[in-house]
């Protein structure tokens, strides 16, 4: 079974190269030493609050640092990651060539439906390994009804970073992701996205005929016109309040990423413990079922060991344009409603669109709102789950995507 799910589709125009994650011993030793030498800040009134009211509790960070030093085994996790098929594919964009890393489960079924899953920040392809594990358990290469593609976005993990000599936007990411699918000969596909991946997925659906449908589990936006109170459930009303609390108390990091990415990128890349503190609060506050400390350490280790902390936050300059984002006013802000002061497209989706609503998403927008941004043909509200849906509830997200494509996919 060593080669299971690794058979490249016969339609591929460019052959991807098999890839194996293998961090050098020198880099791993230096990383381990940095973790040990990183000092925790002193106790303060604010960091002694264990409820996270003023940020990450020092107690949590101290325990996580100790686990990192004493029991965390990167090689064990690396071996698990490598149990899934990894590839590297060159993708051209104009005169620039990008190496795109992706994890895939390829089906031997010639009628398999291609589905791409897109991560965000501070996520990575790691979020989807649980979902891939479910598919490997349920199906064989012969019976798998899908080709599953989970790329690392440009600037993340083992994919090329953005170019140094020009701006790089969501539209560029979408072009490269669509190019990856074209290179694989998977020209009619579904794309699924959360967080930043939802923005990229929306652009792909709007801009490329090869993308035939899109499923989102994140759709932060301002309240559109024409929504009546009866259209919003009580749970969704609480979700709107959660989104407003997020924009008021939890989104300052995004404004820093958007306005001073050079500064924060250099600062965070200088210390693994500094980056852990910056990221861990997001995992803990944005989740319904909190990831384990080990899962958070794996994510932070991946960013640090691949030197992608600074190269992964560029999207905020476009996706979090000040001052419209703070707070989200009516009829302006994100995704489908274009602020007049910015030049990004509206990205209304005139293709089958699906939406999964999770109550502890950081901005769980009502189904009726999301329906104003595209041709919403399928949705489902859940009573559990948060921002990192693929990590927290892989069985729910996978079930939603499968039900969505069963309803809307037409060859």
From TrEMBL:
Gene3D superfamilies, per the entry: alpha/beta hydrolase
One matching Pfam family: EHN
Domain of life the protein comes from: Eukaryota
GO biological process: epoxide metabolic process
Alphabetical UniProt keywords: Hydrolase
Residues annotated as domain Epoxide hydrolase N-terminal: 17-128
GO terms of molecular function: epoxide hydrolase activity
Catalytic residues (positions): 195, 316, 387
Family per similarity comment: Belongs to the peptidase S33 family.
Name the UniProt record assigns to this protein: Alpha/beta-hydrolase
Organism: Rhizodiscina lignyota
């Amino acid at each position: 079974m060593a080669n299971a799910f690794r058979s490249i589709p016969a339609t591929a125009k460019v052959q991807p190269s098999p890839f194996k994650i293998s961090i050098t011993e020198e880099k791993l030793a230096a990383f381990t030493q940095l973790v040990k030498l990183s000092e925790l800040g002193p106790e303060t009134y604010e960091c002694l609050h264990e409820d996270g009211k003023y940020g990450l509790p020092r107690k949590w960070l101290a325990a996580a640092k100790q686990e990192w030093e004493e029991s965390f085994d990167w090689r064990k996790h690396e071996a698990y990651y490598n149990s899934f098929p990894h590839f590297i594919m060159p993708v051209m964009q104009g005169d620039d060539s990008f190496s795109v890393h992706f994890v895939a489960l390829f089906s031997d079924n010639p009628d398999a439906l291609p589905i791409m899953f897109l991560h965000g920040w501070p996520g990575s392809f790691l979020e989807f390994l649980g979902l891939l594990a479910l598919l490997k358990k349920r199906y064989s290469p012969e019976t798998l009804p899908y080709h599953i593609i989970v790329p690392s976005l440009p600037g993340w993990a083992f994919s090329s970073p953005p170019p140094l000599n020009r701006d790089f936007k969501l539209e560029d990411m979408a072009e490269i992701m669509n190019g990856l699918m074209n290179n694989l000969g998977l020209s009619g596909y579904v794309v699924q996205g959360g967080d930043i991946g939802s923005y990229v997925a929306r652009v792909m659906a709007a801009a490329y005929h090869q993308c035939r449908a899109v499923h989102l589990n994140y759709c932060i936006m301002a309240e559109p016109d024409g929504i009546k109170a009866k259209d919003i459930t009580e749970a969704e009303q609480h979700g709107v309040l959660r989104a407003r609390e997020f924009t008021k108390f939890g989104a300052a990091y995004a404004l820093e990423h958007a306005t001073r990415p050079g500064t924060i990128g250099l600062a965070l890349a200088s210390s693994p413990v500094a980056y852990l503190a910056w990221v861990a609060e997001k995992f803990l506050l944005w989740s319904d079922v909190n990831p384990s400390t080990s899962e958070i350490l794996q994510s932070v280790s991946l960013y640090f060991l691949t030197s992608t902390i600074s190269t992964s936050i560029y999207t905020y300059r476009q996706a979090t344009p000040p001052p419209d984002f703070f707070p989200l006013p009516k009829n302006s802000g994100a995704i489908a409603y274009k602020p007049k002061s910015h030049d990004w497209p509206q990205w209304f989706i005139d293709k089958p669109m699906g939406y999964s609503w999770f109550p502890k998403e950081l901005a769980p927008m009502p189904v009726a709102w999301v329906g104003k941004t595209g041709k919403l043909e399928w949705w489902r509200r859940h009573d559990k789950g948060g921002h990192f849906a693929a990590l927290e509830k892989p069985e729910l997200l996978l079930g939603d995507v499968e039900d969505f494509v069963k309803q809307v996919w037409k060859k």
